[in-house]
Amino acid sequence: MWRDTLEAKGFRLSRSKTAYLHCRLSADEGGFASEVAIEGAVIPRVERFRYQGSIIQENGEIDVDINQWIKIGWQKWKMASGVLCDKKIPLKLKERVYRIVVKPTLLYGAKCWPIKRSYI
Fold first, then answer.
1. What's the whole-number average pLDDT of the chain?
2. Which of 43, 66, 85, 107 could form a disulfide with 36 if both were Cys (CB 3.0 to 4.6 A apart)?
C-alpha cells in the first residue's frame, strides 16, 4: 500500500539498493521480524546506514558518526593546510578559510549530539 502511494507520486523503490534497519533504543524492547520481503524479494537487514551524511546505528549509539565527522574535519584541515600554513598568505585570508571550510565541517551536527561521560 505505501509503495503504491509513493510510486503514484513519482517515487520508485529500488529493491537492489533497499535495506532495513531495526533500531533497538531500549533494552526491554521486544524482538523484530526475522525477514522483511517485498513481493517475495527479501530485503537485507543492516546494523548501520548513512542518512543525510550521518551514520545511524541500530543500537542508537553515535560514536561511529562522531568519529566520521572528526575524520572529515581533519581531511578538510589537511586540504586547507597549504593555505593555512603558508607564511606568504595574509592572516585575514587564513582566518576566512578556516571559518568557511574547516570549522563548519568539524561542527556539523554537533548541536544535537548527546554527550556521554566518555567524551569528556
1. 79
2. 43
